[in-house]
Amino acid sequence: MSEAFLELGSRTPALSQGNHPHAKLLTLGGDHSIALPALRALNKIHGGPVAVLHFDAHLDTWNPAKYPSAWESPQSDFNHGSMFWIASNEGLILNGSSAHAGLRTRLSGNDWDDYADDERQGFLRISSDDIDDMGTKGIIDAIVERIGLDTPTYLSIDIDVIDPGLCPGTGTPEPGGWTSRELIRIIRGLEELNVVGADIVEVAPAYDGTGEQTALVAAQLGFEILTNWVGKGMSQMENVKEPKRETKDEL
Questions:
Q1: What pLDDT, in 10s, does the model give residues 223-251?
Q2: Which of 18, 162, 184, 219 has the fewest C-beta atoms under 10 angstroms from its C-beta?
Q3: Phi/psi at 185 (nearest 5 deg)?
Q4: How many whole angstroms separate alpha carbon 77 and alpha carbon 128?
Q5: Which residues of the chain have pLDDT under 50?
Q6: How far is it, in rounded angstroms, from Cα 43 to Cα 147?
Q7: What pLDDT, on a 0 to 100 scale, did the predictor assign at position 74?
Q8: Is the Cα dihedral 226, 222, 126, 181 positive or negative?
Q9: 3-state SS of the chain?
């Protein structure tokens, strides 16, 4: 899968301009572990680690030794709760420029070791409750301050960041999440970030409602990401000045 991401991401866009010599990939899923091959490909494409902006109810930076598994094996170490831990240890994530948002996770023990592991991997943590005090603008400002506008960034959205009352179609629902309107507002406010790849994951149609509301929200989030890319690209194209043409005096 890493090779597939690398091949697709290395293609030159049809309308390549300035700072965008590579294609941007939006992945829809499915299991969140797909972020690892995407980050491996981006590391090769951009020549180094990228920041991660991670919207999720859970940390997903767990040491595999702490993550519950009925069949412990090297294969089970790679799962949808450990992929960022693996990516960080492989040097794929910029330490100190990444952020989680929408957290309301349970911890693996009765201490704060999970948070200590997370901090060693360089993530800022924004909880779901923080939106009550900060508002959507405060969340946007905190993310921009942490990541910056020029840093190559991978945007990863686990649909369980949304409250399960609105998006029940996911495997690990956690009450107390954000509304779809709040997340859409935040995504729109992050248009100026240098997002080089993105995913929307953990959508489980078998658990969705009869109105397929989880799928509808996921589709809208995909639309918001794509329009952010288009909007940012259009504004950059408008700022590219055409080279001055030489004129000849025919007289």
A1: 999 999 998 877 766 665 555 445 444 43
A2: 18
A3: -60, -40
A4: 27
A5: 244-245, 247-251
A6: 17
A7: 67
A8: positive
A9: CHHHHHHHHCCCCCCCCCCCCCCCEEEECCCHHHHHHHHHHHHHHHCCCEEEEEECCCCCCCCCCCCCCCCCCCCCCCCCCCHHHHHHHCCCECCCCEEEEEECCCCCCCCCHHHHHHHHCCEEEEECCHHHHHHHHHHHHHHHHHHCCCCCEEEEEEHHHECCCCCCCCCCCCCCCECHHHHHHHHHHCCCCCEEEEEEECCCHHHCCCCCHHHHHHHHHHHHHHHHHHHHHHHHHHHCCCCCCCCCCCC
Instruction: Give yes or no for a contact between 165 and 209, defined as CB atoms under 8 angstroms apart.
Output: no
Say if pTM beats, i.e. exceeds, 0.90: no
> Measured between alpha carbons, how far is residue 17 from residues 14, 21, 71, 154, 201 in Å?
9, 7, 49, 20, 29
Here the tokens at position 131 are 């939106």
